[in-house]
Design a protein that fits this description.
The structure is a homotetramer. Chain A is an all-alpha fold. Chain A contains ten helices and no strands. Chain A has a single domain (2-205), classed as Tetracycline Repressor, domain 2 (Orthogonal Bundle), CATH 1.10.357. Chain A has helices at 12-33, 40-47, 51-57, 61-84, 90-107, 109-118, 124-150, 160-176, 178-181, 187-199. Chain A is elongated, with a radius of gyration of 21 Å. At the A-B interface, α6, α8 and α10 of A face α6, α8 and α10 of B. Chain C binds a DNA duplex through residues 8-11, 14, 18, 39-41, 49-56, 60-61.
Chain lengths: 226, 226, 226, 226
DNA sequence: CATGAATGAGGATTCATTCAT
DNA sequence: CATGAATGAATCCTCATTCAT
C-alpha cells in the first residue's frame, strides 16, 4: 500500500516487480504522448501485460501516474548522492552533484518533463507528496552549497535558497528546453558552461553587505578587490 | 486565417473579437483545469457563448489551445519592451526587462504553466510556431544582454545564449514553482534576489578556478579589472 | 430535476418527452432482460436514440431505472381511481379497484416484475421513494375498504391493513406468477375468482369479537355448525 | 452432476460438502447485494475458499445461483412437512403448515427475495426446474387444503388452486414486504392475523352476493343459511 | 450569425474465467 | 485438490463535433 496506492495482490515482491514493470512502461508512454493522451491499453501494451493486470496493482490510472512521477523524483534523490560519493572537496562535490543531476535528467528527459506537465493532474494530497520529494532533492543540494559556505568557498551571505533553485532550474531546463539544447551541445558541455555562469559569483567573491530593505534596484559595482 | 486557424465567419473584426473572447476564457479554463480536463462546454460557458459558436471561429479544440498559448507568449513579447521603454542605461534596462518579464508571468502564472504543460498537446507544426515565439522573446533579452556587453558592462566573452536561458528559466520558475515562491516572497523581492545571483558574474568578476578539463574554448582570465 | 434526477437540457417539455421515450424503452428492456443484463446501448437502441442522449437526460443508468420504476408505480396510482370513477356502491367500487389494479398490472407484467426485482438495485434514498409510492397506492385501496366498513358491508373489526396487503399481493401475484396464471386464465377470470376468495369473509360475515391478545391459535369453531 | 451442474472433482462427498459451503456463502452474498452485484470473489471470500475452487465445483457463476435458489426452495419443502409432523387435525395441520412456511421464510428473508429477484437470471431450462420446485411446495399445501375439504371443514367447491396461491403469496409477502411488516409485527402475529383473513371464507361461510355475471361454474348457495 | 440538442467513437474500469504452480 | 495471478471481453460514461433551427 505504498504511498496510499493499494494492490489487489498480496505477494509484496511481486507487487514491487509488476509495479516497476508498469511504471517503466507508463513513464515511456506518458513521456511520449502525455498522460491524458495515453490510454491504459497503451501502457499495458508497452509493459507487455494485460489491461486487467494494471488494475490489480494500481487503483486507477492516476495511481500509475503518481507512482511514475514519484519514481522519477526518487531516481534524482538516489543518483545525486551516488554521483558525489567519495568527493571531499566541497566545490568539486557540488559540481559533481550538478553534473549528476543533469545526467539523470538527460537519461530521463521525457520523465522529467512528465513530472512537470502532469503533476497538476494529480489530486492535491499527491501533489504535496511530489513537492515533498522535490524538497528533499533540493535539501541535498542545499547541503552541498552550505558545505561550500562553511569551507569559505562561497560567501556566507549567499542567498542559498534561491541559489539552489537556480541550480535546480538549470538542471530541469536541460529537459524542459531539450528541443533547444540537445541539438546544440552535450549534457557535459551544458553542465560545464552552466556551472561557469552559476558558480563564478559565489566563488569567493565578497558581496557587499546590503541593508535588508535594499533588495531591488541599484546595485553598485562590486567586489573582489584584488 | 491567422496562423493557420480558420474561421467560418467572414467579418474579420468580428473574428478578432470573438476569438479574443474565447481565448481569454480558454486561458482561464485551461489554466485552472488543464487542457484535457477542460471541455469545450467549459470554455463556452466561461466565455458566455454557445459551444456552436466556438466552432465557427476555431477549427477544433486544439486550435483554441494553440491560439491561447500564442496569446500568452505574445503578451511577453509585448510587455517586455513596454517595461523597458525610456531606460537607456543598458544594465538598468536589462534589470527592467527581467522585472517586466517576471511581472507579466506573475500576472499570468496559470497561463505560463499552461504553455509549459500543453505545448506538447499541439501537433508538431504548431509546437514549432510556439518555439519560434519563445525564441523571439529570448532574442529580445539577448539584445539587452548584448547591449550590456557592447557597453562594456558585461565581459565580451559572456556565454550569452546560456545566460539568456538562465534569465528565462528564472522568470519561468516564478510560475513553475509558484507554489514554493509565492507564499515566501513578492515578485519584486524575487526579482531583486534573483538578479543579485544572476548578474554578479557577468558583472566582470575574475574567475578564480576552472575545472581541470576546461570545457569549450579556452577562456582567459578576465576582465574588467578596476 | 424531478425526484433528484437532473437533466443537462433546459427545455422542460423536451426533457419530459425524452425521458418518457427513454423510460418506456427502459421498462421494455429491463423488463425483458433485467436491469444488470441490459446495457445502456440496448435501451438507446430500443428508444431509437443515441447513448449520449440518454446521459443528457439522466445522470446515470440507475437514474433510468429509478424513473422507470416510479413510472410504473405512478401508473397504478393513476389508473386505479380512473377505474373506479362513477361507481358509488362501496363494494362495487372496491371490486372495480381490484379489477383496475390487476388490469394495469396485466398490461405491464414485465414492468411490475421489474419493480419487484430491481428496487433493491437503487440506493436507499430512492428505495424509500418507491416505498412511499407504493404506500400511496395502498392508501387508495385502504380508503375503499374503509368505505365498505363505513357502509356496514364489511365488519368494522376487519384487519384493514393486512386486508389491503392481501389485495395488493393478489394483484401483484398476477405479474409475479404470470408464468403460472396466464396460460390458465384471463385477468378477468383471475380477478373474479380471487375476489370470491378474498371478499367473502368481510362481506357482512360477523366476526366474533376476539380479545386483542387472542391473535394466533385457538380459534373457536365458528360458522360451520355441525 | 446434480441437476446438470457438473464438478471437476471426483469425490462425491467432497463435492457435496464444498458445494454446500459455497452455496451458503452465495445465498448470504447474493441475498445481501444481489446476484449481479456480487462477484465470484465475494462469494469465495465469504466461503473462505479461493476463486479457483469454486470453478472446480461449479461450471460457472450461474450454476452457483441456480443451486443457491434450489437450496432455498428445497428448504421450504423440507421444513413445511417437518412443521406439521404429528398434527392430525386437518385445519390445525394447515395452520401449522402456513406457520412453518412463514417461519422458514422469516429465517431466510434475503434468500426468499433472492429467489424472486434472480430466477429470471437463469436460463430457461433452469427457470423451469425452479418452477417445478415451487410447484412441489404448492402441492404440499394443496394436499393439506384438500384434506380439509375431505374432512368437511372446507367447502368442496373451494377454489383450491387459487386458495393455495393466496397462501403462498401471503407467506412470500412476509419476505417481499419485510421492510413494511417486520417493523410492525412478529411473524407469529403476522401468521395469526393472516390466517384470520385467509381462512374465514373457506370455513364454510355463506356467500351473500355474487357478481352479476358469475364467473366459472355455478356455485350454489351453501352452508350456513341464516 | 448564434444556438444547443444530438451523436457515437473512444476510454477507464470491472470481473468471470482460466491455468500454471 | 487448491490457489490466486493473469487475462481481455464487455460495459458505463464522456465529450468533441455537427447541424437543424
Amino acid at each position: 500500500m505504498k504511498l496510499g496506492v493499494k494492490a489487489r495482490v498480496e505477494d509484496a515482491a511481486l507487487v514491487e516487480r509488476r509495479r516497476r514493470q508498469v511504471v517503466n512502461a507508463a513513464i515511456a508512454t506518458f513521456g511520449k504522448r502525455g498522460y491524458h493522451a495515453s490510454t491504459v491499453r497503451d501502457i499495458a501494451k508497452q509493459a507487455g501485460v494485460s489491461v486487467g493486470l494494471i488494475y490489480r496493482y494500481f487503483g486507477d490510472k492516476e495511481d500509475v501516474l503518481f507512482l511514475a512521477i514519484v519514481d522519477v523524483l526518487d531516481s534524482y534523490r538516489r543518483r545525486i548522492p551516488a554521483g558525489t560519493a567519495g568527493i571531499t572537496d566541497p566545490l568539486e562535490r557540488l559540481r559533481a552533484a550538478v553534473h549528476a543531476y543533469c545526467s539523470v535528467i538527460d537519461a530521463n528527459v521525457d520523465a522529467t518533463v512528465l513530472a512537470y506537465r502532469e503533476t497538476k493532474s494529480l489530486r492535491k494530497a499527491r501533489r504535496n507528496v511530489i513537492k515533498q520529494k522535490e524538497a528533499e532533492t533540493n535539501a541535498l543540494l542545499a547541503r552541498y552549497v552550505e558545505d561550500c559556505i562553511a569551507a569559505g568557498i562561497f560567501d556566507k551571505r549567499l542567498d542559498v535558497a534561491l541559489f539552489v533553485y537556480q541550480i535546480v532550474m538549470f538542471a530541469h531546463a536541460w529537459a524542459l528546453k531539450a528541443w533547444h539544447f540537445r541539438p546544440r551541445m552535450s549534457v557535459d558541455e551544458y553542465v560545464a558552461r552552466g556551472l561557469e555562469l552559476i558558480l563564478n559569483p559565489p566563488l569567493g567573491v565578497s558581496r557587499l553587505r546590503r541593508p535588508a530593505s535594499a533588495w531591488r534596484r541599484t546595485r553598485g559595482r562590486r567586489g573582489r578587490s584584488p
